Amino acid sequence: MRPHPVRLDGDQSVQHRRPAVSVRRLAALGAVLLAVAVLAGCAGGRDGRGGPAPPQRAWFRIDVLPEGDAFLDLYAAGRLRSDAEVRALARRLAEAAFPGARGVRVRTEDDRGLSFASAEIDRAYRTGRDASLRIDTAGAARLLRARGFRDTSVQLRLPSVPSTVRTDGRPSGDRTWRLRPDGPAPVLSVEMRPSPVRWLGVLALPVLGAAGVALGFFVRRRIFALPAAGAAVAAALAAVVLPTGRQGDNLGVAGLLGGTALEVAAVVPLAAVPLGLPAAMLLAAVAVRGLTRPDVPAGHEARPRDTGVFW
User: Strand order of the sheet with strand 163-167?
Assistant: First the structure.
């Protein structure tokens, strides 16, 4: 038999009480909330993707031109707010690197969507048979560190002439240097020895190409015409493989030419390339004709008066 339930009166009922909240639990909850707040504050110093903030980096490149001028291109990211600030900093860097320059002009350029400041430096060095210049990067390094840039570097480009670069008095084969905050900035000493004879050497290529085309098309004997056309093609290939278009720098650094005359002199040796095209077509036509014509007994070549200009 099931037992009968016992009924309790109001004064005899059991009253259930909620347990009091522990002080330790409150302290633990406060610690968790504090940790979340700290993490949120740290996340505020990161980028939108949750990674660390991008480093403040800057680097500049010095292009020494064959006419005595130079360019200083400054790429700065993270610190400067506008292009005007980048241009102002580029001007100060150029004046610090070339204190004896005649003048500095700065403008904003664009390189595949990345803007940078380009400073054009007038008379960065004196041209001549023994041209030289000295670039002290200490002033540029101080200016960059003052603007908050710690990770910086400098790159040097020279004309295509025989040259020697010394860093702090020692020969150096490098063309890029890191400007470290804990080390001295390098002092670059550049000695250039232009050789105009190199330009005369590559100038022989278009002369050879023109002579080869003339002999190939207007000499009536193949024994002379075909080798001449082959020489024109070889001159065109040499103009492509060799640094032909840069040998004009020797004339500029030596102080012999400048401006438009130097630009024309640098392009003239490349004329061997288009001269090689008709010579190559002539050789191809002769080869196709030799393969497609019927076989005939070998015989002596006719006298020049009995043949046409193009055989």
Answer: 131-136, 187-192, 163-167, 170-171
